[in-house]
Amino acid sequence: MKVVSVVGARPQFVKAAPVSRRLRQGHHEVLVHTGQHYDDAMSAVFFRDLELPPPDRDLGVGSGTHAVQTAEMLRRLEPVLIEEAPDVVLVDGDTNSTLAGALGAAKLVDAAGRRPWLAHVEAGLRSFNSSMPEERNRIVADHLSDLVLAPTPAAMVNLANEGLAERAVMVGDVMVDAFVTASSRASSVLPPVAREQPYLLLTLHRPSNVDDPVRLGAWLEAVAEHAGPVLFPVHPRTQAVLDQARVGVPPSVTLLEPVGYLAMVALECAARVIATDSGGVQKEAYLAGVPCVTLRSETEWVETLEAGWNRLCPEPGDAPVAIGAAMDMDRSASRPPLFGDGHAAERIVAALEHLTARRAAALVAT
């Protein structure tokens, strides 16, 4: 089986690593990096930390508007898919790289009228917020895919509600596979500043939270006022707003350079509370057993809310109650294995093998 795996952003590198290791034990994988995240802090360090092989193809697309970036990815990806002629194109998550990979595979037809199978890892997530570009990307990827690989029962329900049940397989969350591997190595790379005293770990990168300097400043003030020391690894998008608008940073907030995957896991595991607008960090907080405050009005990971380990904080004014509740939470509370057992990569590869076997059987029959 030949698989082209399309990645482009930090969360995708995390999900791709366990699957890539498993695939390469018995199959041929071509890893294509779109270049959506491209500098060392956002890309290369993740490949090193995750022990992910270097990309076989780097499209080097870089930044741009949603339309420009996605269109350029498609333009550069199509000849790669034609040349490689894979059995399967594998995409994951909900970025513009996901969308480009799905569209490219869905429109690719060879001389015999066949196209590669398309499979989507982390399928079925829904925020039900149509203003989020990620929501549009994941919905399109799911509906184009021949195989939708769901991380949770809730995701399976969403897929069934959209008429995709026959294409869906519940495999568990591959980020658990990555987190289990990383957490055993992470403590050695904990940044020294995190060893000084208990802290709240903050991440902010979504346009709705950071593009408006007033709102970004309000978040920083609200989190700092009610949390004590705050460690804030700053996403390049957020840093640009801080610099250009000269947003004031409260004294209790320590800005950090973007960190690699191992250092981020170490920061998460050692934090008192995590406040974030990232979907992946919410989930990692749960896996680390650290209370989380999600700085959004909704979450794809509703299971973490129901389990009591996550709470929504839609506006800066909601921070006192949300962060206070997280600070007071009993960290010995029950934490069921919502996202699987750390063997999702094995199930993903088995599902891909079954998918390609169907085509081989059909060819024999004709």
Task: Tell me what the structure shows.
- There is one protein chain.
- With 366 residues, the chain is an alpha/beta fold.
- It folds into two domains: 2-173 and 341-365, Glycogen Phosphorylase B (Rossmann fold), CATH 3.40.50.2000; 188-327, Rossmann fold.
- Helices cover 48% and strands 14% of the residues.
- The chain is built from 15 helices and 13 strands.
- It has helices spanning 10-23, 40-50, 66-84, 96-106, 133-144, 153-161, 174-186, 207-210, 213-227, 236-245, 261-270, 279-288, 302-306, 319-327, 344-365; strands spanning 2-7, 28-33, 57-58, 88-92, 117-121, 147-150, 168-170, 200-203, 230-233, 253-256, 273-276, 292-294, 310-312.
- The protein has a seven-stranded parallel sheet, with helices on both faces. The protein has a six-stranded parallel sheet with strand order 10-9-8-11-12-13, sandwiched between helices.
- α6 links the parallel β6 and β7 (168-170).
- The longest helix has 22 residues, at 344-365.
Rg on CA atoms, Å? 20 Å
Query: What structural category do the secondary elements indicate?
Result: alpha/beta
Overall domain count: 2
> Would you list the SSEs in sequence order as H and E?
EHEHEHEHEHEHEHEHHEHEHEHEHEHH
Largest sheet, in brief, is: 7 strands, parallel
Bin the strand percentage. Answer: 5-15%
